[in-house]
Design goal:
16 helices, 3-stranded mixed sheet, globular, alpha/beta, Dna Topoisomerase Vi A Subunit, Chain: A, domain 2, Arc Repressor Mutant, subunit A
Length: about 425
C-alpha cells in the first residue's frame, strides 16, 4: 500500500506525469520544457523537435534526487521490498546482537519498532547547537543543564529542574556506555543538532573499543519535498537506511576528536583551521555545519545571528502581524541548514523583543507562543538594513559573545572574521 509521504514515490504516478509533460511540451508548453531542461546537462539542450519520453523520465528522476530513471525504479522497488518485509513481520534487522539505537530526539522511535528493529532506543536531546559547549568535561552536564533550564524550559523551581536534567543526562551517558549493548548505532542527518550530538557521542564512546559502533548518516533522500531530517521518512525508508551504516574507524574518531575540540574552543580559530585545511572527509557534513555554526556569531553590520536575521526578514516581508504557525515554517524555508525546533527558534528570537528598543513586538506578552502574534518594529527594520546595530550576550559553542568583547563577521567570507573589543 502506498502511503502519502513526500518520500514515498509512486512509480505509476511518475510514469503518467512523464507522458503528460511530454504531451504538453509537444503542444508548446514552454514552462514544462524549461523544467525538463533544468535537470539536463548543459550540452543536451532539448526542444520540441528532439525531446523524447526517456529525456522527460531522466529529468523527473533527477528532480526526485536520483541519477537516472533506472535508479528511480530500483529505489521504488527497494522500498516496496522493505514494506513487504515489515508487513510479513520478518526477523528484526538488528537481532544478531544486543543493539542500542541513538538519536537526538524521539522522532523515529516508533518507526524503528514498526520497521523491524528490536534494539533499545536512546534519545540524546540536549541541543548542543545552542548555548555553551564547555571544555571542562567534569562540569559539562551541569553547565548544559543550567543553560537548558534557563533558556528553553524556564521554571520557578529552577534548582529542582536543573537537578532533574542533570540526572537524566547522567542516565543517558550510562546507557550509552552500558555493557548491556554490543552494538551502538547513531542515527543522524546533516544539521548541527545531529552532527554535534554525533561528535559528543563518539567522544564519549572513544575508549569502548569492545563495542561495534556504527553510524547511519543522511543528507538527502529521494522524494518530492526538501529533506530536512530522518523523521520525515516513511517506515520502509527508515528500514532501508540500515544498509547505509558505516563503522566508527580510527580515522573517523580522530577527526571527530578534532572537530569536538574545535567546537569547544573559546575562539573560532580551531574551527577555521578545520575548514581551511585539516581533513574532515570522514565527517562529510561537518564543514557545512561548522560554517553555519559560525554564522550564529554577530553579523558585523547588524549584530544579529543568522537565525535572528532570517527570522526578522520573514517578519519584515509581512504587512501585518503573523502567528508563530506562519512565522516558523517561513523561517525554515529560508534557513540554509535547518537545525532548530520551534521552541528553540522562539527562544533564539525572544531576546530581540526584550531590548530597550525592541526589534519586534509580541502580543499578548504572556501565554503560549503558538497563540501570540509577532510584528517587526521600525528599529528592527533599521537593524536589518545595517542602520543600527544590536548588542547581545550569548554563547556560540565554546565562544562567549559579549557586547564589549566578541567575534564578528559578514556571514559570507570566512576571512572577514575578526575580534572586536570596546570600552563601555
Amino acid at each position: 500500500m502506498q502511503s502519502h509521504n513526500q518520500f514515498s514515490i509512486n512509480l505509476n504516478q511518475q510514469k503518467a506525469r512523464a507522458k503528460k509533460l511530454l504531451k504538453s511540451i509537444k503542444q508548446g508548453d514552454s514552462e514544462a520544457l524549461a523544467l525538463i531542461n533544468k535537470f539536463q546537462s548543459s550540452s543536451n539542450h532539448l526542444n520540441v523537435d528532439n525531446i523524447k519520453l526517456a529525456d522527460v523520465q531522466f529529468s523527473i528522476a533527477r528532480e526526485l534526487g536520483l541519477p537516472s530513471w533506472n535508479k528511480l525504479k530500483l529505489h521504488v522497488e527497494e522500498l516496496e521490498s522493505h514494506r513487504k518485509a515489515i508487513d510479513a513481520g520478518e526477523q528484526a534487522l538488528d537481532a544478531d546482537m544486543p543493539t542500542l539505537h541513538v538519536r537526538c530526539g524521539h522522532d523515529i522511535q516508533q518507526s524503528l519498532k514498526i520497521g523491524g528493529f528490536s534494539g533499545d532506543f536512546l534519545p540524546m536531546i540536549d541541543p548542543l547547537c545552542m548555548g555553551p559547549i564547555p571544555s571542562d568535561e567534569k562540569r559539562f552536564i551541569a553547565l548544559r543543564a543550567a543553560y537548558v533550564v534557563d533558556t528553553l524550559i524556564p521554571t520557578e523551581d529552577r534548582e529542582r529542574r536543573i537537578k532533574d536534567v542533570i540526572e537524566a543526562e547522567q542516565r543517558n551517558c550510562e546507557i550509552l556506555l552500558s555493557g548491556d549493548f554490543e552494538r551502538v548505532v547513531l542515527w543522524v542527518e546533516h544539521d548541527s543538532y545531529d552532527q554535534f550530538m554525533l561528535l559528543r557521542a563518539m567522544n564519549l564512546l572513544e575508549k569502548h573499543t569492545d563495542k561495534v559502533i556504527e553510524i547511519i548518516e543522511l543528507n538527502q533522500f529521494p522524494g518530492t519535498g526538501r529533506f530536512i531530517g530522518i523523521g520525515q521518512l516513511p517506515t520502509e525508508a527508515i528500514r532501508s537506511c540500515w544498509q547505509r551504516r558505516k563503522p566508527l574507524s580510527a580515522k573517523l574518531l580522530s577527526q571527530a576528536k578534532m572537530a569536538w575540540n574545535g567546537l569547544r574552543s573559546k575562539k573560532p580559530d580551531a574551527i577555521m583551521r578545520l575548514l581551511n585545511g585539516k581533513p574532515l572527509d570522514c565527517l562529510p557534513n561537518m564543514s557545512n555545519v561548522f560554517k553555519r555554526h559560525l554564522q550564529e556569531l554577530p553579523h558585523i553590520a547588524t549584530g544579529l545571528s543568522m537565525t535572528q536575521s532570517i527570522g526578522l526578514t520573514v517578519l519584515k516581508k509581512q504587512s501585518n502581524s503573523v502567528s508563530f504557525k506562519e512565522w516558523f515554517p517561513q523561517y525554515q524555508k529560508l534557513e540554509p541548514l535547518p537545525f532548530l525546533g520551534d521552541g528553540m527558534f522562539y527562544r533564539s528570537m525572544l531576546p530581540l523583543s526584550r531590548l530597550e528598543q525592541p526589534l519586534f513586538t509580541i502580543e499578548p506578552i504572556k501565554g503560549s507562543y503558538f497563540e501570540q502574534k509577532f510584528t517587526i518594529t521600525p528599529q528592527g527594520i533599521a537593524c536589518l538594513s545595517g542602520e543600527s546595530k544590536v548588542v547581545q550576550d550569548y554563547w556560540v559553542g565554546g565562544i562567549c559573545v559579549r557586547s564589549q568583547d566578541h567575534w564578528t563577521w559578514d556571514h559570507s567570507d570566512l576571512t572577514s572574521i575578526k575580534h572586536q573589543r570596546s570600552a563601555r
